[in-house]
Each structure stands twice: as structure tokens, then as C-alpha cells.
Amino acid sequence: MTAVARVDRPKTRKGSRIVKAREPLTIENPKKTSFVKAANINQRTAQILKDLYTLKKTESVFYQKKNDIRPFEDVSHLEKLMAKKDTSLFAFGSHNKKRPQNIVLGRTFDRMVSDQFEFGVENYKALDEFKVAKIGIMVKPVLIFAGEAWQQTNEMKRLKNFLIDFFRGEPREYLGVSGLEHAISFTAMGSSTILLRSYKIHLKRSGQKTPRAEVEEIGPRMDLKLRRHKIASDDLFKQALRQPKGLKVKKKKNLEQDDLGTSLGRVHMERQDFGRLQTRKMKGLKKKKGQAASGGGEESGGDAAEAEPMEADEV
Amino acid sequence: MTTRVEDILGLNGETEEVFKTINVEKPLDCEFDIGELLVVDPNAIEEYKFKQNETDYVDNLSRDNVQLLINELFKIPTEVKEDTVVFQLPKPVTRIPREKPCPKPKPLTKWEEYRKKKGLRPAKKEKLVWDEASKEWKPRYGMKRINSEKEVWAIPVPETADPMVDQFKLMREKKKERIAKNEFQRLRNIQRAHKIDKFAVSSVMPTDKPTPELMSKAAAVAKGSTASLGKFDRKLALEKEAKIKGKKRKFVDNIGSISTEKERTMKILDELNHSRPKLNYARVVEKQMKKDVKEEIRQKKEKKRGTRSSKKLGNKKAAIKMAKLNRIKGKAKGAKGKKRR
């Protein structure tokens, strides 16, 4: 049973506009991210959040205040925070003795947390610690997933899907060569360690049309140790993957493509009526304008009626 | 001059040697999603190389993968847009879950349903209407609208009406009544859309704080909700048989006292004789439910107000709401009363 739609109406025009903007869309806007600090966060972990925020700047909200939240125990407060700004991804940072330098990354579906992954950050080097030229904002990164572990377990597959979701940026229709500037690589060392590296791409001449790529690390650098995780059930995930009717491309009937990329169509024809077949046109057979409207038999009758008074005049 | 040419030639010769290769060889082919700028490299990490120099290994691995993506990307035909060469990216193949469920069509209101059934089209109404009295165009609805109650400065008292009744007050009341009616219908439409009255009939209602008894009852109902009334369901080791019994029908004895039988028959006949309309139980239940909910809300609000120090009777908003509630109640009663007459 779904919850009853809001019974109370928004009181102001502005309010109703906001409510309307948050309704489900056929083509969704890019997902926004909430960055939330735990009550026990330390400076280093906050720096990690800040670095992630810099990577995702235009489409995120950074909550400055600390919140007493434990996402693996109770997500309700976190969900509330996210609903407030209509975000559907979150990054949460905390630090304690049992789980030092802890970040939780997750996403929601329908305002409820569906997937969340907890990582311990080791070997962290902040964005500022790399003294190199940085990249511009709104750059769609190249995402690299290396290692056989990504294909092995259901959790890792889901994590891969989640990381793509989290870091992919806005979808693009066109990409210039200069837009190919940033690369984020996730190297899986076994099923519990992921090396996150971020690079600036330099395109060099190669003597061919395709340039040679060189990478320069710009940070942040972190080794993520997977701690706890909670992933959505397959049912819920499937439901979230569902596309609205308008977006699905209808398969065209009787249209195939062969290996060479030529499209072949099969057309079914009705039996042709040869009586109506257009044969060679001749001037003599052409109907005159006035005659075309009435039938053949009546035509002659009409002509006779017209002719009669003329004759009378002559006589 | 000659030296420069030689220089250039010499440079060209050098650079061709300097160019590094763009080819990358891997045992397993990478998967690409060009639309998402995604490379998935399924090759295993070479541990011994990684241990020799961790950063170099990871950097080289990433470089190779970026190179592979670029090689793949440069196969796409390019276009010129705003004086720059761009690639038209294909649509991403990787399926990413939505953030919200697919949009659903808005449920029709009772009127819309009727309109659809009848095939009626909404009459087109212009926003502005000509006002004969003031000789200007006025909005149909909203601020400074035509026929606004605020602008009426005299109302003729109808001949049949009581001259002592304040016609202005009557007009205001009527307007409030219309607003209340509209609100009532809106709520009813929400109820209809969610089929709330169906759930009201169920013996187990969803609550915030379920008691153990309610939980066990709900479990029993759920168990018995299969086509075979839970007969073939798997049971737990120590599970007790769910005791949920339907109502047993009781029949009156065929042979009894004549007076009671006569009374019963007369009662039926009496009911038939009356032109009273049949009671729509669903509607009555619905109304009662709504009444209860509103009463609850009112009580909660009153409690809240009670906790605050100030007891403002002049709280305008609350007063209006109360008036609304009372009117809705009064209306429901009135409607019933009319039917009886």
C-alpha cells in the first residue's frame, strides 16, 4: 500500500511550485548529492567529504552542521535531510575508534535509502596536497573500473553501478576534445579494497588522428576499505531500473539490420487491384473538367439539354 | 633559409621517433560505455608488479585504460558545433536506477470521471471578463475579481426573507460554505483515489504502534489470505494454528411464536411502505470515518494549544478552521435530515 498523497495543499504559489518541481519526471534531472557530517567527525574525514564535494560541486548540498546520525542503524533523519533539498545521493563522514576515517556513500529511491556502502579511508592524500593544475568544474569524468573483482560478486556489481551513479556527472550528448579532461579510476584489489585515483588527462600528439593520452594525478587519492554495506533487494532494484513508458523505444516491426549495418525491411502489401492500375496516359482519354464531376451516362444527357435551346434560336 | 628548412626537416624526423604509441595490449578486451565515458577492465591486477611500485602501476593502468577509451571515442564520427569539433556521444548503455518512481497519471476526480464518461469537454473560459458595472475588464478569479463579495455595497432584501437578517453576513456565510464544500469534495477525491474505504472494512488496520495482539491477528489474516485459505502454507516448527473464524450465520427457528413473526413481517412491510431512500452504508461509513479523523486532529490541536501558556480565543486561523469543521459536520447532519423528511 502506498502512502496517501499529500492531503494538505501548499499554501503559497512558491510552495506549490516547489512541490511540483519535486514530482517524478519522465526524464529525470541529474541526481543531486547531500554531504553530511556526523557528530563525531574529525578534521581529516571532513576534508575527505570536502574533496568529494569539490568533485561534484554543481549538483550537491554540503550541510555545515554536524548531525547525530548512524546510517546503518537509523536512516530516517538522513532521509529527511535529503528530502529537504530533494537530493538522492549522499556522502556521510564519521570518525571513531572502531571505524576511523569512515565514509558512507549511498543513494535513495523514492526518498528511501536503497543502497549504502561504508568505507574506511586509508592512504588519503587530499586534493590540496597535490600541487598541480586542477580541472574545471562541470567536467564529465572518464570512469575506469579495473580488476576482476568488479565482476565477481553481486555486492561488487552493485557497488560498481553505484559508483558510476555517484561520479558520472551530467549526461552529455556532445563532447569536445577539451571536455576530455578528468578521469577517476577505481581499481579493485580483491573484494574489499578499492583504490580511488583521480587524474587530469593530457592529450599529446601521436602522429595519428587519435592522440596519445597521458595522465597526471590531481587527487584526491584514497584507498577505500569496504566495511558494512546494505544493498537494495533485487525486486526494489529492478523497480528502480524501470523506465517510464514514454522513454522506451518501440521496436519497429519487420525491420532488421544485417552485419553490414544495412537496414532491411519487410513490407506486406494488399492484393493490388489491377482494374485501377494507372496505364499510359493519352490526351484523348482524358476527362474534361466539367465532365469529371458527373458520371458518363448523365454527361451525354446534359449535353443534349444544353444543345436544344441553341438549335431553337437558329431556327 | 636553408638551415631553417633543415631544422624543420630535422625536427620532423625527430618527433616521429619521439611519438609514443597509442596501442595498448591486454589479454582480455575491455568493455566500454562511450555514452557514459566508462571503461571496465576485467583483467586481473598483477600483484607482483603492483607491489614493486604501487603508484606507478595504478597510474599506468589508468593511462592505458584512458587511452583505450580515447581510441574507441575517436572512431565516432565528429561534428562541428560552435566552431569546435565535438563527438556525438551515443546513449549510455549502463542502466542506472531512477531517483523516483515512474510518474503515474493523476487519478481522475469524480467530476472528471463523469465528464470523461459523458464525453464532455471543458468550456473554454477567458481569464478576463467584461464588467458592465465598472466598465472594465476584470479577472474571472482571484484578486479584484468580477462579482467580488468585497465590492458589494448594497443587497436588496428579498420579499420573502426576514428583514432583520443581515444579508451581508448571509453572503459571507454562503461563500464559506462553498469553500468548505469544495474542500470536502477534494478530500473525498483523495479518498476515492486511494480506495481508503476498502481498507476501512478490513479487520486489521495499519497503525503506528501495533500491539502484539494486533500483530498476531494481522499475521493470521495474512496467512489465511491465499486462495486455499492458508491450508497448504508451510508452517514453522512451533507455530500454532491460526484461529480466525468467520461469523456463523444464525437462523431464526421455523416454528416460533406467532406474535414475533407478525411483528417481523409488519416491520418489513412498514419499511417498504415508507418512501425513505435506502441507506448507502459505504457512504455513511466513509463520512463517519472522516468525522472521526477530523475530531482526532481537532483534539490533538487543542491539546497542543493547551500546553502553550496563552489561551488565545481570538486565534483567527483556528477559529476559521473550527468553523469549517462544524459546518462540514452540520452539513452532513443536514443532508441526512433532508432525506428523512
Automatic annotation (TrEMBL), chain A:
Pfam families: Brix
UniProt feature, compositional bias: Acidic residues: 305-315
Entry annotated with the keyword Transmembrane: no
Signal peptide: none
Compartments (UniProt record): Nucleus, Nucleolus
Family: Belongs to the RPF2 family.
Protein name per its UniProtKB record: Ribosome production factor 2 homolog
Organism whose genome encodes this protein: Galendromus occidentalis (western predatory mite)
Lineage of source species: Eukaryota, Metazoa, Ecdysozoa, Arthropoda, Chelicerata
Recorded name of the encoding gene: LOC100897221
UniProtKB/TrEMBL annotation, chain B:
Gene Ontology, cellular component aspect: nucleus
Compartments, record wording: Nucleus
Listed GO biological process terms: ribosome biogenesis
Region named Disordered: 292-341
Basic residues bias: start-end ranges: 300-341
Keyword Nucleus: yes
Pfam families on file: RRS1
Alphabetical UniProt keywords: Nucleus, Ribosome biogenesis
Function (record text): Involved in ribosomal large subunit assembly.
Stated family: Belongs to the RRS1 family.
The name this protein goes by in its record: Ribosome biogenesis regulatory protein
Organism: Galendromus occidentalis
Designated gene of the protein: LOC100899141
